[in-house]
Write a structure and sequence with these properties.
heterodimer; A: 261 residues; MetI-like fold; 2 domains; 82% helix; globular; B: 368 residues; alpha+beta; six-stranded mixed β-sheet; five-stranded antiparallel β-sheet; 24% helix
Chain lengths: 261, 368
Amino acid sequence: MSLSAVVWLVLGAAYFVIPLVATFLFSLKSNQTGKCCTAANYGWVIHNGGFWHSVKISFLLALETIVISLLIFVPTIYWVHLKLPRLRPVIAFLALIPFVVPPIVMVVGLLQVFKSSPHWFYAQPWGFLSAAYVILAFPYMFFSLDAGFRAIDVHTLTEASQSLGARWTTTLVKVILPNIRSAALAASFLTLAIVMGEFTIANLSAFHTFPIFIQLVNETQGFPAAALTLLSFGITWAAMLALLVVGRKRGARSAVVAGAR
Amino acid sequence: MAYLELQELHRDFGTVKALNGIDIALGEGEFLSLLGPSGCGKTTALRLVAGFDRPDQGRIVVDGKDVTRVSPNRRDMGMVFQAYSLFPNMTARQNVEFGLKIRGRDKAERRKRVDDLLELVGLTHAADRYPHQLSGGMQQRVALARALAIEPRVLLLDEPLSALDAKVRVQLREEIRRIQLELGITTLYVTHDQEEALAISDHVAVMYGGVIEQMGTPAEMYTAPATPFVAEFIGTMNRLEAIVLDGVEGDVEHSGLRLRVDAARGRRNGERVLVLIRPESLELEAATNGAAPNSFTGEVLTQTFLGPVTRLKVSGSGTNLIADLSTARAAALPVGARVVAKIPSEGAKLISLPDDGPGLPVLDPDDQ
């Protein structure tokens, strides 16, 4: 490795590592004295009922968003690939809209649209917020799943399954879904990451999610906020690691099959 | 009585008539190949039989029952596809077992049937391998076993060998025929490879432009093509456009040469005809002084070694001819040699051409 490569590598690593180390050192300072080193801030976070409550809300919201999104988008994208390929560019365009429209504009619009909806929907994170998050996750879901569907021969697999007597649902569950598994996992973990970190919509619609809790702690208690930041960073990394472990062994097989065609 | 009937099937895709009224009747246990160039409608016909598409007109009848509107998963048709179609998430065993599971067969029965079929296709040792661990030929064998597992009423094969290399193709096509004969299953086979179709079929239907040009046994198709297209498509054929001079004696005129062809007897004088001669029927020898009757004099343009025979292209008198000679005989007629090609009066076939219509769409014989 050349000297310049080593320099760039060190600079790149420093860019990522220094803030983490600084945050870690900051998180070890006592909230009372401001001196190093104590793990009390981590203890404070872990024993804080608000932390677990908000994590639970955000995590369940993420799961709900993932389930709803997969139920909507997997059959839709499958059908588009199979029967309506001309619609694919239209859906791809629609999927870009959540990227283009700022979250603050989206939340104001959604609050207007849903203001006359039933109380159980409008006033609950499981209703309004999950609906908003499904829209927010649409691009990540679509582009991940679309790539997954494009890597397999949807037509041939479907027709082979049908000729053997399988119905649409059996074909989708037993044949198609297992072969887009890594794409569905990628889409799911991206959605998890988005929902766990989404602030604007939750804040403006007054729901107490994990990012709102982080913000609240950040405004009031500096050192525990650093501990909280690192913990949320750890949660995100754990999710990504899970994706890597689960997706790697399936992805290798898909690649070989696609290449053989 | 026919077991599989395609009655007056029509299928249009926009302005393109993919199928323009095809009729097929196939007896139980028979093997029919649909043969034709790309875009002739052969795969469309197969997909209609499988139920993946619906005809605009016409009926598909299996064992006396109209299945035209029956969905593909209820037709009991086993299908082997051109593309590798094994389910990548399942082993060879699981792939073969899939259709049986759908039908709710018990575990012991499934196991026995899968074992039998994997043995039939010679893949017992690869039962637990995933598709990506199998070669192309092995994948198509598993696909065949999978299609047969459900004991289909009709076996459909859509160019199953086209992605394989030449040696495996020959090997596998013989296996397909052996298994088909062993099980006595009615089979519809789509291919663009005439050699493949002639080698393994009971009947061959040559398709062109959405219609069946001719249907018959492989021998009939080879020795007695009924249309100029079939003559072009099946095997290599020398084609001489000619006019009947004497319908009593069987004399025709081609490029100023008078030829005697038995098949021209009984034809109307002045009728436009196509004289068809197989390359192996032509007799070739070194030219000597004096014109021989019923023959062309020309020059050897090329020699192509084909193993058991050598193919010579001869040009002369405004005509190009292809002749297949034993390699030893061909050695005596090198490129540039003057030769005489004798037209066999009894071996040549004749097809009528429309008096005012266009001639044959000419393919270079080398391209066949």
